[in-house]
Amino acid sequence: MGKILEINGPLVKLQLADAVLGEQVRVGKIGLVGEVIGRDGDTALAQLYEDTAGLRPGEVAEGLGWPLSVELGPGLLNAIFDGVQRPLNAVWEQSGDRIARGVAVPSLPRDQRWHFVPDPQRRATTAVAGGDVLGTVQETESIQHRILVPPLLHGELMELAPEGDYTIEEVIGRVKLRGDVNEGRIEKLHLFHRWPVRTPRPFRRRDHAVKPLLTGQRILDTFYPLLKGGKAAIPGPFGAGKTMLQQQIARWCNAEIVIYVGCGERGNELTDVLEFMPELKDPHTGRPLMERTLLVANTSNMPVVAREASIYVGVTLAEYFRDQGYDVVMVADSTSRWAEALREVAGRLGQMPVEEGYPAYLGSRLAAFYERAGRVETLSGDHGSVTLIGAVSPPGGDFSEPVTSHTKEIIQTFWGLSKELADARHYPAVDWLESFSGYVPSAAKWWAENVDAGWEAARGEALDLLAASEELQRIVNLVGVEALSSEQRWTLEAAGLIKEGLLQQSATDEIDSFSSPEKQFALLSALLEIYRQGMKLVKLGAPARRLIQMPLLAQARRWKSQHKSEEIAVLKEKIARIPAEFEQIAQDYEQAAPAARE
Amino acid sequence: MKNIEFRTATSAQGGLIVMGGVPGVSAGSRVSLKDHAGNLRNGLVIRSADDAVLVEVFEGTDDLDLERTWVRFLDEPFKLPVSRDILGRVFNGAGLPRDGRPPIISADRRDVNGEPLNPAARAYPREFIQTGISAIDGMNSLTRGQKLPIFSGGGLPHNRVAAQIVRQAKLLGEESSEFVVVFAAFGASHADARFFQESFEESGVLNKVVMFLNLADEPVIERLLTPRAALTAAEYLAYDLDYHVLVVMTDMTAYAEALREVAVLRGDVPARKGYPGYLYSDLAEIYERAGRIKNRRGSITMIPVLSMPSDDITHPIPDLTGYITEGQIVLGRELSNQGVYPPVTVLPSLSRLMKDGIGKNFTREDHPHVASQLFASYAKALEIRGLAAIIGAEELSDADRRYLEFAENFERRFIGQGEDEDRSVYETLNLAWDLLSMLPPEALIRVSEEELAKYHKWQAVAEAA
């Protein structure tokens, strides 16, 4: 037993001689929990996950003997946890509308029974190792929870429970351990196990990421693809639509499990997710979206230290489902708030600030976090992936600030949001010039095999067109549109068509909200076809002014919200009719051209 | 411990004193301090160890004689007594009466810091509030339980806009406002405070208003307490007495500056522009107290007013605020100089909760599309205006000139309105269609074809021209 020596905001100096760095401590009469972050002789420095008001020097403090860990087992899905994995619904029942300090509720329900079906392969006295699947629990209709041997155990399975209903605390098996230290010790197995959040869960080896994470968002899938097992960042100033875009991803992406970490964000946003997710259907299974979703919520008004922990809690949960062989997406909103929590604690520790008050280890912490993404061969030989998508909230929208610039060096897909686009209500406000993706070659292979061999070329053509129009726009801003040649005007018009008819996508429009890869490609080819046909005419001498008045252009802008992803056939018919629309004008010019020459 | 007076102050500097040899003082405890003249001051323990306790003195440490300063540790956080009688009263930043009437006596005393609301207990705000201001109702609508700040600058009419919202805010279909108002001013001038007081008086709502005033010439540290005291009162009114509460706070910049002042004294490591790294968390503690709670009738809708230092929206205070609040109403100098009231710069303005509170079943089915179209068309018009400034309006095409005219009318007729003009949301939407009818239907792709057929009057306008 130790005692409190000093209280300074969330930091508490303790007299606790045998404290280990990273160890959990319980402090004071009301039992606030925290984590040891420093030792000096027999004093320890701890950061507490809750507000320290009311604590006084001299009150008790004790080390708990384990680092910050999460409980992994049935009961995770469909839940909402705070930054240290307390189930918020259970907390609500226990302590009311407000989160009382020191409230202790187990992460997973203790009284619920789960129907466990053992794997027939697993018999007594066969060898088992960490990560092996012992059996399954059908946790929700769409997700089967595979019960794993805790990663670091290996030995001989002495017994395994028969099929039946068990709570997570009931023993479902025994293992006689092998290994130097623990040789012969008997370890009990349960439906759940614990894992320390700051240690990445082990796997056999890293695999190449090969499949794109399809989000149904055209600017993302078609232009700046992300792979399952990849890492992406969404930086953007406030009001640029970060949250909306992330919610769209959480809603539509083709991952099997989605973990949404609200780190230091708005309370109402989480409420929004909580209220609208259960109503939505998973487009891939037809089941309620909540069945594959797990929320970790540490809103901005909740204590700052738990905010720092929430990111690690989220990613550990993601790794756990990856180890069961699932493709998992974790969306972290926002990593800037996590970095700020780091800065806040560093500041109180008196650590030397480097850039904008951030501690020197910001970059390495960020990199280590994103490295927990990846597609892996699991310990049991299965394949699973963790895709990390981190939102970044750069102060003033300045992408050169430390968190954004460090993140940019680490991630492979960068979806930069622009204030100008958002101001014009062009959503998603992903800036097509600022964004990039390092996964295009891998994605191209998938698109070629599954959608159309022309994907990469079409994508390139559209991007060139957008870049060219940006140049032209600069000229227009100086001297006006009349100074452009007909070809240039048509280029500008066609780029506008791509921006409005393809890149812009309404999250609230029922049809437009999601685009299948086929629809994305059909729209892209249609708009490029219009561009090419028009360009052919312009080269024949038709003035762009005439083409711009074609009703086809206004119609094509509406196609995205007129045809569902299932109605590709209709869209393809329209594409087939495009040349005919231009034919009329072409005839005029072919007749007029010789006359004009005379 | 409450009754023991310690005279062990060892040092004092700009608002902070260090007390030696007072063991076991609880963190965050309230402190009562008696100076040599017998005057009482308030304080708060911000750091506690057995050998030294750091105390923040709200009224400042000016004039303190350490040898003749007596300090009592009250062993409890700052609490505000609440009862039904707070309606119609005026308090100072620490919750003591400043209207010459007796203090509130109540056994119910609430910790002004509150406790974080469980996100699982929140109810999502969906009820559209009609403010009667087109730029807000039409394009950045407010919902009950939302926090929507006004970003402004020195000399802009943010106070008048805030007062107009308070006067006119009501739910659709209601005859008059059923809101009670909690008004908090920190660092505001006496003139500002008087303006609001008179405005409440004129509209006869004074008995439905609670005021917390910490004016520009009053103790700076007390400013840190003022919004917290005000929100404690608001929470009591909303969740205990079932009122819908409108909280107006001015000026958040003064609050943040007070926070910086104290942080510097404490020796906290500065982050941006000298503001402490915890400015975000601290502001969030205040803003996040707006909202609605499941199974409770009342609600807290928050309209903080914030002046952007040198009109810079990327300054840490508006920047961090924008990341916490559910949008912002931005007032612009340019419009104001052209005599447009309210000078709402619509493009950087935003309401995040708008999508869920408007449209079919809420306002009118075309509302979301109309709002989106107004934004798009006005953005395009401004681009053309920028171009016209360079190459001259006569060089523009007819289509472009139409946009110029649209922008002109939009600013004068849609954004601009009288200070007493209370437009219903239907009037606002009809007005929007009048303006959109100045543009040809094929330029309006954010609205549906059915809506165009129903509301767009291009033909009529073209014929009239």
Strand content of chain A: 15-25%
- The total strand number of chain A stands at 28
Query: What is the count of helical runs of chain A?
Result: 16
Major sheet details of chain A: 10 strands, mixed
Q: What's the CATH C level of the largest domain in chain A?
A: Alpha Beta
Query: For the record, what is the CATH homologous superfamily label of the largest domain in chain A?
Result: P-loop containing nucleotide triphosphate hydrolases
Helix content of chain A: 25-40%
Radius of gyration of chain B: 25 Å
Helix content of chain B: 25-40%
Mean pLDDT of chain A: 91
Quaternary form: heterodimer
Shape category of chain B = elongated
Helix segment tally of chain B: 14
Could you tell me the radius of gyration of chain A in angstroms? 28 Å
Major sheet details of chain B: 10 strands, mixed
Proportion of residues in β-strands of chain B: 15-25%
Work out the number of β strands of chain B: 21
Question: What is the rounded distance between the termini of chain B?
Answer: 83 Å
